[in-house]
Amino acid sequence: MNPKALLFVANWKMNMPFTAARQFIHTHLSALELLAQKTTAQFIICPSFIALSDLCIQTGTTSVKIGAQDCSAYASGAHTGEIDAQSIAESGCTHTLIGHSERRYSLNESNEIIGTKITRLRENNIIPIVCIGETYTEYTNNTTLNTLQQQLEPIFSHSKHIAKLIIAYEPVWAIGTGTIPDIEYLNKIFSWIERTTTKTLSTTQLIFLYGGSVSEANAASLMRIQHINGFLIGNASLDFQKFQNIVLSSHDTVSTIK
Ligand code: PGA
């Protein structure tokens, strides 16, 4: 993956049933590839577990990569319903989302569990996309950096070197709400994340993404955030036109300012 290229990760959550997921890739794969060529953008599509294998087969050796939305903290064993990182790798996935706020807060996933999942992914050569972000209460109480520090800690404590890592900062209060923080705030947060991460961890490829209500309307201005290389996109990634418009307007911004 070209570290200078913009990266767009589509988090389909549980919004794209198996047949629709297959159909989406079947219909739009060539257009995604053309878009990638035109903009040098890179795409990672994260469907449900059930669709991973099928989408990996469909995308094959194209530039479009497939990622899982989570993995088990266990390598194997008696853990009914869990999905191991080895199976995710064997299905052809290159990336996996870890620590999404919908899992942290609805399923009580701790920072420690997320750290263990990162280890499972690294054992299987899968690139982790680690999601971090503060709640609205933490934001208004001015404790965002404490929260982010705690969420980054398990990444740091597991290893001092991670070859490839993607960190997606998604304020929880911006996810699916249409509300986004102002650019000044985001610049401050990303500068802090960048400083804190690079001071503690050595990497060969480190990518920062912004996520939370990214849309056709705000992508151009959000792309001005310092240090970011792309977006983690939920809702707007379910509609190919919207997704494409986000990529094109981000590309235009980057061509003029970065
Ligand atoms: P959203 O979701 O773009 O719908 O806000 C982003 C995410 O949860 O990753």
Instruction: Give the uncertain stretches in residue-range form.
Output: none
Head-to-tail CA distance between termini: 19 Å
Q: Give the spatial strand order of the biggest sheet.
A: 1-2-3-4-5-6-7-8
Attached small molecules = 2-phosphoglycolic acid
Structural class: alpha/beta
Name the average pLDDT.
96
Q: Helical stretch count?
A: 10
Please state the CA-atom Rg, rounded to the nearest Å.
Answer: 17 Å
Please provide the count of β strands: 8
Q: Spell out the helices and strands N to C.
A: EHEHEHEHHEHHEHEHEH
> Shape, please?
globular
Q: Please estimate the helix content.
A: 40-55%
How much strand content do the residues show? 15-25%
Largest sheet: 8 strands, parallel, barrel
Topology of this protein?
Layout (H helix, E strand, L loop, with lengths): L6 E5 L6 H22 L2 E5 L2 H11 L5 E4 L16 H6 L4 E4 L2 H6 L4 H13 L3 E6 L3 H5 L3 H15 L2 E9 L13 H18 L1 E10 L7 H4 L7 E4 L6 H18 L1
Parallel strand pairs: 1-2, 1-8, 2-3, 3-4, 4-5, 5-6, 6-7, 7-8
The protein binds 2-phosphoglycolic acid.
Concise structural overview:
The chain is an alpha/beta fold and 258 residues long.
